[in-house]
């Protein structure tokens, strides 16, 4: 069996593996988040095993990364294209699909200095055949107690993980920063054929100026998608309102008593079935349709130096959250010989920290800050 070297993982893998297998819980759900039952049937449904779902999802992630990058480059309209930094099974463009289906690897794609996207990253990570330590197995057992499943995770069990994330920092302060990810974690018994898997993910906006109709549509689209999979009164105890709350709880700067942005959705520990696979794929395929219309509407708006400076101040809060509170980043940087570029790939390109900055009374900047301190329901 192959033991994984965490310092070689991208920030996506670090966030996911910490969430699923360590006590650090990088992207763990807030304490108020219930662990979800399997949607649409048992995790042991013979028609779609956890391994089958994992393989289907990894193929989706590989294809979706390529599709997203094409759409972002088209929207950006500049000569700048996404760079490619592959490792492991994805080190070369011509790596065989057989290699990618049996070995670990990933691709970090980055665009910088574009017309629309000042800096953006789209990162794919697929981890295969890791071996759970006693501590990590115990952590999963603690999270698994509320879930239905035949496999009780043990030390020595084999785990695999796959994740796709995107962070887009825009040049124009009237276009919000967009962040999203989807991920799966699979554990197979070392002694028999039993297995269990979970999904996690989310999507959120960090605006610099409140254009209410844009933010409202973003949240309404998310609600419509969530409601189609988890209608009112569903037995799985999941709803759009809950996932919005979980997102607000995670992306919060307690020292500032403010949220990083206007939120979106966040979910974790969602048992992997064909039904939840459909939900998670819908989350990912909805990323660009939810964000690109905002780019088309506001990406060419004129802005002042003062408005750009305000964007940089808010980006400072974004970086502040990453370094002080994002448990995945903290964990990744704490490892010996960390892959720093991968861990910090979501950082904004330019930031500002003004001492004791207070927005003018009655200004649009003050209106944003009030919303960040007291989040609202954008769907009503």
UniProtKB/TrEMBL annotation:
Region (Disordered): 86-107
Statement: the UniProt record of this protein carries the keyword Metal-binding: no
GO cellular component terms, semicolon-separated: cytoplasm
EC number(s) stated in the UniProt entry for this protein: 1.3.3.3
Gene3D superfamilies, per database record: Coproporphyrinogen III oxidase, aerobic
Pfam annotation, one family: Coprogen_oxidas
UniProt-listed InterPro entries: Coprogen_oxidase_aer, Coprogen_oxidase_aer_sf
Keywords: Oxidoreductase, Signal
GO BP of this protein: protoporphyrinogen IX biosynthetic process
Extent of the signal sequence: 1-26
GO molecular function: coproporphyrinogen oxidase activity
Organism of provenance: Skeletonema marinoi
Protein name: Coproporphyrinogen III oxidase
Domain of life of the native organism: Eukaryota
